[in-house]
Each structure stands twice: as structure tokens, then as C-alpha cells.
């Protein structure tokens, strides 16, 4: 499986980002620690992780909001049974994955789950995020590009994806 993951943190008005490898994470604390360490190095208390896998699904994780647990949004909860990283993220967000009988091949439409509100202050409403998640013909990478553009780090993400 091909997975792209990158963490971003603001430093004043400028965002910084770096691609990260998440293949060996077993628990959400591994992900959160990586995110918060990156944010702290940049003098920020906020970090966003964008994940895209196999042009099939994406996830957004937000950490650093006043010591709260990480906030997670998964574009298709059906993938948690087939992708270990999605499983780790869903456990952290308390997402309700459909049973395996309803997973990836059984229904044609994605089943978004999680905190759709996590990007509202960065320019992407919950309704828009959910609409982009289930919109026909919209690839996960395109959704993440919209998220990055609205938040102010679109060019950084584009540079990583080239």
C-alpha cells in the first residue's frame, strides 16, 4: 500500500511541513508525539497531520489544542479493517468503523467518520469536508490540497507531492 503522510505546524503566519513515515506506528501516542515534537521545534502548539493512502482514503489529525486528545477525521471508516494506520487513527478518534461485512467492497460510497469540525477555524467547514469525502471523482489527494490551500500551506504540500 502506498501511503503519503506529512505533518504541518504554523510558526506565526508561516507554516512549515515535512513528510513523515508512519509505517511502524502501533498507537496514537506515536503519531501525536511526532506531531507535537515537530510543532514544538517550530515554536507552535498546533500540528496537523495529513494522510492519503492508495488514492482511496485520507485522514486529518489535529494535535496540540490545549492538551486535548488528538482530533481525527477519516474519509472512509470502512478501511480500518484493511489498513493498520487507519485502525490506529480510528481508535484514537473513537470512530465507529462499520463491521467487516460492510467494509471496503460492500458499499460504493465512502463512510466518513470523526471530528469533521477540526478544520473549521482553518477555512474548511464540517459540511464541506464531508461533502468532499463522499463526492464522486474527488481523489483524496485533491481533498488534502483543498485543506492545505485553505489553511495556508498549499504550496508546501504541492512541493512535497511533486
TrEMBL record:
<feature type="region of interest" description="Disordered">
    <location>
        <begin position="90"/>
        <end position="117"/>
    </location>
</feature>
<protein>
    <submittedName>
        <fullName>Putative tRNA adenosine deaminase-associated protein</fullName>
    </submittedName>
</protein>
<dbReference type="InterPro" id="IPR023869">
    <property type="entry name" value="tRNA_Adeno_NH3ase_assoc_put"/>
</dbReference>
